[in-house]
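Let's do one together. I've listed all components of the complex below, 242 residues spread over two lines.
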Amino acid sequence: MYINEMNLTFDSLSENESFARLAVASFCSNVVKDIESISDIKTAVSEAVTNAVVHAYDKKIGKITINCFLKEDEVKIEIIDNGIGIEDIDRAKEPFYTSKPDMERSGMGFTVMEGFVDKMIVESYKDKGTRVTLIKNISR
Amino acid sequence: MNVECKNINNVLHIYLQGELDEYTAKFTREILDSTFLKEKFNEVIFDFENLEFMDSTGIGVLIGRYKNLKSRSKGIYIMNPNPTIEKIMKMSGIYEIMPKIS
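Okay, and this is what the predicted structure of the assembly comes out as:
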């Protein structure tokens, strides 16, 4: 049972990253009261949105949707794109693996997400898109 | 994002201010690389005191600068990361190549 929901759709432009992570952090701050958890959420969302901006639509611009559900004891955030999908999710999750090493990418995105939230689920289908679900437990 | 550089006795102090992410990475890279070309220095200190936000894109930017400076064998150091940035820095193991100083 969720107690509050927020949906956000925007173009896959890097200039929207700051706005997206701030919007989610601000929405969550109604129930998440400790600053550290808010910072963690902000960073994890930024990683997921960056992945979608950089990888999902190749060089084209598509849409990124964020669904955010506030529950009694957790925050659930979905970051969804309709892009090319991730070919090998296990490999993509490996620390320091990047499909674009020439662009000075650290390959740390999923590692950071896993480290900053309590649960991360990655679902992806070729040419259909990717959904990353981040769950952060709330301690009250 | 704002980048300020001060050369004090051949130690290049770089003050990053704002948010380092995919959007601001290009600008940050360009200004750092042009400063490295212009200035004469033996060491670089990145001061993160006013860096409010950084995600793993920032780690990529730092590793890229490390590679650029390695051939000129310059030491690179980090100062004053906030607790969230500190977590990412530790996760990435980057302190092994650019130690944190106080």
